């Protein structure tokens, strides 16, 4: 479904990604892990069109998407969540999901503003769809709450609900478990598995919670200083000396929430 081919990206003198290649087959939950600053978010940003790569190509469903705008990439079926939650804090939970659905609706902002018939019909549809997604993700009892009033665990779920609103084929999750407690992380893992199983959505997951990653991922790619240093199933990656060294090289592991192996 997704092919990442020889991606390079530098910021000034800093090489954030160097010849990164891997693929994500349809229906998989693949993880991308690595110490802080390894380049994981940069790659998510390149896949979702926020930055163009300096070199290399991203192919999604046999089409080159690198160079397209984020909205075009969203329209063809890739949606994402952000490491630093990006919600409309002054809108309700339901409104956040409805706004996210905008790429799916046909009436423009002007028509919506004038409450023209098509826009009204679409607004009703967006509302119903929004309620359905909130119910699916377990947030329907919070629908009228301001997004800013939700605890971090529910804000992260709302980000996922927003990402689902565009009915993606591929979902990119950037540290969905950051700030979640053990119980919330376990439920998040179950939600991700359900999204794959029931909605058939392919997932690329970035997270530092190794228990979550090792439990739900079919395949793991490890980045360190912008380069792929390992690839494999959980047991292979956990026992790969290159991976262990990369994580041991991190100054203060506990601080960064990283623990490898079990
Ligand atoms: N817009 C930018 N401008 C300059 N440098 C950047 C930019 N974005 C990322 N970087 C740098 O690129 C490197 C990779 O950063 P990135 O955010 O991709 O890492 P990461 O693997 O997501 O780390 P973390 O686990 O801490 O989220 C870092 O050294 C970072 O400082
Ligand atoms: Mg990051």
Question: What does this molecule look like?
Answer:
The chain has helices spanning 40-47, 70-75, 93-100, 109-113, 117-137, 152-164, 182-199, 210-216, 234-238, 241-248, and strands at 2-11, 14-24, 29-33, 55-60, 63-64, 78-80, 170-174, 202-206, 219-224, 227-232. It is α/β, with parallel strands linked by helices and 262 residues long. The protein is 38% helix and 23% strand. The chain folds into two domains: 1-77 and 168-262, P-loop containing nucleotide triphosphate hydrolases (Rossmann fold, 3-Layer(aba) Sandwich); 88-164, no CATH class. Adenosine-5'-triphosphate is lined by residues 11, 14, 16, 34, 36-42, 83.
Task: List descriptors.
262 residues; alpha/beta; Rossmann fold; 2 domains; four-stranded antiparallel β-sheet; 10 helices; 10 strands; 38% helix; globular; binds adenosine-5'-triphosphate; binds magnesium ion
Task: Write a concise synopsis of the structure shown.
The chain has helices at 40-47, 70-75, 93-100, 109-113, 117-137, 152-164, 182-199, 210-216, 234-238, 241-248; strands at 2-11, 14-24, 29-33, 55-60, 63-64, 78-80, 170-174, 202-206, 219-224, 227-232.
Work out the oligomeric state of the chains in this entry. single chain
End-to-end CA span: 31 Å
Identify the bound ligands: adenosine-5'-triphosphate, magnesium ion
The CATH architecture of the largest domain:
3-Layer(aba) Sandwich
Total number of beta strands = 10
What is the name of the CATH class of the largest domain? Alpha Beta
Envelope shape? globular
Percent of sequence in beta strands: 15-25%
């Amino acid at each position: 479904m997704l092919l990442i081919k020889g991606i390079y990206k530098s910021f000034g003198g800093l090489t954030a990604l160097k010849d990164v290649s891997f693929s994500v087959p349809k229906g998989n939950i693949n993880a991308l892990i690595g110490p802080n600053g390894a380049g994981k978010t940069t790659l998510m940003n390149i896949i979702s069109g926020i930055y163009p790569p300096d070199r290399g190509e991203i192919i999604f469903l046999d089409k080159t998407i690198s160079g397209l705008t984020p909205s075009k990439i969203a329209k063809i079926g890739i949606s994402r969540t952000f490491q630093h939650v990006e919600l409309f804090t002054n809108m309700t939970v339901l409104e956040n999901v409805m706004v996210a659905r905008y790429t799916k609706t046909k009436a423009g902002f002007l028509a919506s503003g004038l409450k023209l018939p098509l826009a009204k019909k679409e607004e009703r549809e967006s509302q119903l769809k929004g309620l359905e997604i909130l119910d699916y993700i377990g947030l329907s009892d919070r629908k009228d709450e301001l997004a800013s009033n939700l605890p971090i665990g529910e804000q992260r779920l709302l980000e996922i609900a927003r990402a689902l609103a565009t009915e993606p084929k591929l979902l990119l999750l950037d540290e969905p478990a950051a700030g979640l407690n053990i119980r919330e992380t376990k439920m998040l893992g179950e939600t991700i598995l359900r999204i794959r199983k029931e909605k058939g959505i392919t997932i690329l997951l970035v997270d530092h919670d190794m228990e979550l990653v090792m439990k739900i991922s079919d395949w793991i790619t490890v980045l360190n200083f912008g380069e792929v240093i390992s690839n494999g199933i959980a047991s292979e990656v956990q026992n790969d000396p290159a991976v262990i060294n990369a994580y041991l090289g991190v100054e203060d592991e506990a601080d960064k929430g990283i623990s490898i192996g079990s």
